[in-house]
Amino acid sequence: QVLLVESGGGSVQSGGSLRLSCAASVYTYTFSRHRMAWFRQAPRKEREGVAAIDTDGSTNYADSVKGRFTVSLDNAKNTLYLQMNSLKPEDTAMYYCAADSVVSASLRVWHYNSWGQGTQVTVSS
User: Fold this and answer.
1) pLDDT (tens digit per residue) in 59-80
2) Quick one: DSSP state of residue 33?
């Protein structure tokens, strides 16, 4: 397992944008060789998959964020991103970076072996 570190969370108004970043604590951990994803968890709700990216670059999105969120990987910086546009109050949650899925572009929590500590996103109406 590797420690993942998220950043970029914050408070925005409805309709605003944020970009989340995820980096590895170990520089030898190459993101492009691992299946990665973003998850989120709102208070009193289960953690849910938001966006996933496979080693071949294919992506998968939850229906609730399709057309608004984009997951991408900067290989040169070894950083995973989640660009979030047209944010809504219901997007308010703690967002987590995950790695090492056993299934391609999975949005299932139990498919991932490595997790970050999360970054808070709050969207006000």
Assistant:
1) 999 999 999 999 999 999 999 9
2) G
For residue 36, what are the contacts with CB-CB under 8 A and spacing of at least 6?
Answer: 22, 52, 53, 71, 73, 80, 97, 98, 99, 101
Go through the chain and tell me how many residues it has.
125
DSSP 72-107: EEETTTTEEEEEE-S--GGG-EEEEEEE--SSTT--
Taken in order 57, 69, 18, 25, is the CA torsion positive or negative? negative
The 10 Å CB-count burial string (b at 16+, else e) for 85-106 is: eebeeebbbbbbbbbbbeeebb
Antiparallel, parallel or unpaired: β 79-84 and 18-24: antiparallel
Q: Which of 30, 108, 35, 44 lies closest to 71 in space, CA to CA?
A: 35
Rg (CA), the chain: 13
Strands 79-84 and 69-74: antiparallel
Q: What is the predicted pLDDT for the residue at 107?
A: 97
